[in-house]
Amino acid sequence: MPTSPVPVPEAVLAAERRAVERSFAHSCEQATGRVLAVLAASVRPGGRVLELGTGVGVGTAWVVSGLEGREDVEVVTVEHDQALAELVRSTDLPVTVLTGDAEALLPGLGTFDLVFADPEGGKWTGLDRTVAALAPGGVLLVDDMDLSRYHRTDHVAAVTAVRDALVGHPDLVTAELPVGTGLLVSTRRPA
Ligand SMILES: C[S@@+](CC[C@H](N)C(=O)[O-])C[C@H]1O[C@@H](n2cnc3c(N)ncnc32)[C@H](O)[C@@H]1O
Predict the structure, then answer these.
(1) Can you identify the CATH homologous superfamily of domain 28-188?
(2) pTM value?
(3) Is 75 exposed, middle or buried (0-12, 13-18, 19+ CB in 10 A)?
Protein backbone atom coordinates (compact mmCIF):
# COMPACT_ATOMS: atom_id res chain seq x y z
CA MET A 1 0.00 0.00 0.00
CA PRO A 2 1.55 3.37 -0.94
CA THR A 3 2.14 5.74 1.97
CA SER A 4 2.70 9.46 2.01
CA PRO A 5 5.51 10.65 4.28
CA VAL A 6 4.66 12.71 7.34
CA PRO A 7 5.75 16.26 6.40
CA VAL A 8 8.93 17.66 7.88
CA PRO A 9 8.24 20.90 9.78
CA GLU A 10 9.81 24.08 8.41
CA ALA A 11 11.78 24.67 11.63
CA VAL A 12 13.38 21.24 11.19
CA LEU A 13 14.22 21.93 7.54
CA ALA A 14 15.84 25.22 8.61
CA ALA A 15 17.89 23.38 11.23
CA GLU A 16 18.92 20.76 8.68
CA ARG A 17 20.09 23.60 6.42
CA ARG A 18 22.21 24.96 9.28
CA ALA A 19 23.73 21.49 9.61
CA VAL A 20 24.64 21.40 5.91
CA GLU A 21 26.08 24.94 6.00
CA ARG A 22 28.31 24.02 8.94
CA SER A 23 29.08 20.46 7.83
CA PHE A 24 27.60 19.31 11.14
CA ALA A 25 26.96 15.60 10.70
CA HIS A 26 25.62 14.65 14.12
CA SER A 27 22.00 15.77 14.04
CA CYS A 28 19.32 13.24 14.85
CA GLU A 29 17.72 11.44 11.94
CA GLN A 30 14.23 12.37 10.82
CA ALA A 31 12.79 9.09 12.10
CA THR A 32 14.20 9.85 15.55
CA GLY A 33 12.95 13.42 15.35
CA ARG A 34 9.43 12.23 14.61
CA VAL A 35 9.47 10.11 17.76
CA LEU A 36 10.75 13.12 19.67
CA ALA A 37 7.91 15.27 18.34
CA VAL A 38 5.32 12.66 19.32
CA LEU A 39 6.73 12.45 22.84
CA ALA A 40 6.90 16.25 23.13
CA ALA A 41 3.24 16.48 22.11
CA SER A 42 2.32 14.32 25.10
CA VAL A 43 4.07 16.49 27.71
CA ARG A 44 1.63 17.57 30.40
CA PRO A 45 0.41 21.18 30.64
CA GLY A 46 3.06 23.25 32.40
CA GLY A 47 5.64 20.55 31.76
CA ARG A 48 9.34 20.74 30.95
CA VAL A 49 11.54 19.23 28.24
CA LEU A 50 15.33 18.83 28.36
CA GLU A 51 17.66 18.05 25.49
CA LEU A 52 21.26 17.10 26.24
CA GLY A 53 23.43 18.13 23.28
CA THR A 54 21.85 20.80 21.10
CA GLY A 55 24.02 20.56 17.99
CA VAL A 56 22.57 22.93 15.40
CA GLY A 57 19.06 22.48 16.77
CA VAL A 58 17.55 19.71 14.64
CA GLY A 59 16.30 17.69 17.63
CA THR A 60 15.28 20.94 19.32
CA ALA A 61 13.20 21.88 16.28
CA TRP A 62 11.44 18.49 16.35
CA VAL A 63 10.57 19.04 20.01
CA VAL A 64 9.28 22.53 19.26
CA SER A 65 7.23 21.22 16.34
CA GLY A 66 5.64 18.59 18.57
CA LEU A 67 4.67 21.30 21.04
CA GLU A 68 3.07 23.38 18.28
CA GLY A 69 3.39 26.77 19.93
CA ARG A 70 2.43 25.67 23.44
CA GLU A 71 3.87 28.37 25.66
CA ASP A 72 3.09 26.48 28.86
CA VAL A 73 5.91 23.97 28.24
CA GLU A 74 9.49 25.00 28.95
CA VAL A 75 12.19 23.62 26.65
CA VAL A 76 15.81 23.65 27.82
CA THR A 77 18.71 22.43 25.73
CA VAL A 78 22.35 22.11 26.83
CA GLU A 79 25.35 22.41 24.52
CA HIS A 80 28.99 22.57 25.56
CA ASP A 81 30.18 24.09 22.30
CA GLN A 82 29.76 27.84 22.70
CA ALA A 83 29.49 28.55 18.95
CA LEU A 84 26.75 25.95 18.48
CA ALA A 85 24.87 27.23 21.52
CA GLU A 86 25.06 30.81 20.14
CA LEU A 87 23.90 29.61 16.75
CA VAL A 88 20.73 28.04 18.14
CA ARG A 89 20.16 31.03 20.45
CA SER A 90 20.16 33.21 17.33
CA THR A 91 17.22 31.29 15.84
CA ASP A 92 13.58 31.91 16.68
CA LEU A 93 13.21 28.54 18.39
CA PRO A 94 11.42 29.29 21.70
CA VAL A 95 13.89 27.44 23.90
CA THR A 96 16.51 28.19 26.53
CA VAL A 97 19.98 27.22 25.34
CA LEU A 98 22.42 26.64 28.17
CA THR A 99 26.15 26.55 27.46
CA GLY A 100 28.08 24.00 29.46
CA ASP A 101 28.72 20.38 30.20
CA ALA A 102 25.45 18.47 30.45
CA GLU A 103 26.68 16.17 33.18
CA ALA A 104 27.89 19.06 35.32
CA LEU A 105 24.73 21.13 34.83
CA LEU A 106 22.20 18.33 35.33
CA PRO A 107 21.97 18.41 39.15
CA GLY A 108 20.97 22.09 39.06
CA LEU A 109 18.30 21.90 36.38
CA GLY A 110 15.39 20.35 38.26
CA THR A 111 13.14 17.66 36.83
CA PHE A 112 11.64 17.18 33.39
CA ASP A 113 8.74 15.37 31.75
CA LEU A 114 10.77 14.52 28.65
CA VAL A 115 14.55 14.18 28.40
CA PHE A 116 16.40 13.55 25.13
CA ALA A 117 19.90 12.28 25.94
CA ASP A 118 22.21 12.55 22.96
CA PRO A 119 25.90 13.14 23.91
CA GLU A 120 28.11 10.79 25.88
CA GLY A 121 28.00 13.13 28.91
CA GLY A 122 24.77 12.32 30.72
CA LYS A 123 24.56 8.98 28.93
CA TRP A 124 27.82 7.02 28.88
CA THR A 125 28.85 8.92 31.99
CA GLY A 126 26.52 10.50 34.52
CA LEU A 127 23.49 8.48 33.43
CA ASP A 128 22.33 8.46 37.04
CA ARG A 129 22.06 12.27 36.90
CA THR A 130 19.94 12.07 33.76
CA VAL A 131 17.64 9.49 35.33
CA ALA A 132 17.38 11.62 38.47
CA ALA A 133 16.19 14.53 36.29
CA LEU A 134 13.12 12.54 35.19
CA ALA A 135 9.91 13.61 36.88
CA PRO A 136 7.46 10.88 37.93
CA GLY A 137 5.82 9.71 34.72
CA GLY A 138 8.62 11.39 32.76
CA VAL A 139 10.03 9.86 29.59
CA LEU A 140 13.70 9.48 28.68
CA LEU A 141 14.71 9.03 25.04
CA VAL A 142 18.29 7.88 24.53
CA ASP A 143 19.87 8.06 21.07
CA ASP A 144 22.62 6.09 19.33
CA MET A 145 21.98 2.81 21.10
CA ASP A 146 22.38 0.46 18.13
CA LEU A 147 25.38 -1.64 19.16
CA SER A 148 26.25 -2.55 15.57
CA ARG A 149 27.40 1.08 15.05
CA TYR A 150 30.28 0.63 17.46
CA HIS A 151 33.56 -1.14 16.78
CA ARG A 152 35.74 -0.19 19.75
CA THR A 153 35.27 -2.56 22.66
CA ASP A 154 35.16 0.29 25.21
CA HIS A 155 32.36 1.95 23.22
CA VAL A 156 30.41 -1.31 23.00
CA ALA A 157 30.86 -1.70 26.75
CA ALA A 158 29.67 1.86 27.44
CA VAL A 159 26.52 1.49 25.32
CA THR A 160 25.80 -1.93 26.81
CA ALA A 161 26.15 -0.48 30.31
CA VAL A 162 23.62 2.27 29.47
CA ARG A 163 21.19 -0.31 28.14
CA ASP A 164 21.62 -2.58 31.15
CA ALA A 165 21.23 0.30 33.60
CA LEU A 166 17.99 1.48 32.01
CA VAL A 167 16.49 -1.97 31.45
CA GLY A 168 17.36 -3.04 35.00
CA HIS A 169 16.36 0.19 36.75
CA PRO A 170 13.61 -0.52 39.28
CA ASP A 171 11.85 2.81 38.70
CA LEU A 172 11.89 2.66 34.89
CA VAL A 173 10.01 0.78 32.21
CA THR A 174 12.26 0.58 29.14
CA ALA A 175 11.89 -0.50 25.53
CA GLU A 176 14.23 -0.58 22.54
CA LEU A 177 13.02 1.19 19.41
CA PRO A 178 14.87 0.16 16.24
CA VAL A 179 14.59 3.66 14.82
CA GLY A 180 17.37 5.80 13.34
CA THR A 181 20.63 5.04 15.11
CA GLY A 182 18.78 3.01 17.74
CA LEU A 183 16.67 4.39 20.55
CA LEU A 184 15.91 3.36 24.09
CA VAL A 185 12.79 4.84 25.63
CA SER A 186 12.17 4.71 29.37
CA THR A 187 9.31 5.96 31.52
CA ARG A 188 9.78 6.67 35.21
CA ARG A 189 6.93 5.00 37.07
CA PRO A 190 4.82 7.55 38.93
CA ALA A 191 5.85 7.51 42.62
C1 LIG B 1 24.67 14.11 18.49
S2 LIG B 1 24.94 15.84 18.62
C3 LIG B 1 23.40 16.52 19.08
C4 LIG B 1 22.35 16.46 18.07
C5 LIG B 1 21.05 17.07 18.49
N6 LIG B 1 20.60 16.57 19.79
C7 LIG B 1 20.02 16.73 17.45
O8 LIG B 1 19.17 15.88 17.72
O9 LIG B 1 20.06 17.31 16.38
C10 LIG B 1 25.71 15.93 20.18
C11 LIG B 1 25.97 17.34 20.64
O12 LIG B 1 26.29 17.29 22.02
C13 LIG B 1 27.34 18.18 22.26
N14 LIG B 1 28.01 17.65 23.46
C15 LIG B 1 28.91 16.63 23.52
N16 LIG B 1 29.22 16.38 24.80
C17 LIG B 1 28.51 17.26 25.55
C18 LIG B 1 28.41 17.50 26.94
N19 LIG B 1 29.10 16.76 27.83
N20 LIG B 1 27.58 18.47 27.38
C21 LIG B 1 26.86 19.22 26.49
N22 LIG B 1 26.94 19.05 25.15
C23 LIG B 1 27.74 18.08 24.70
C24 LIG B 1 28.19 18.18 21.00
O25 LIG B 1 28.90 19.39 20.86
C26 LIG B 1 27.11 18.02 19.93
O27 LIG B 1 26.69 19.26 19.45
Answers:
(1) Vaccinia Virus protein VP39 (3.40.50.150)
(2) 0.97
(3) buried
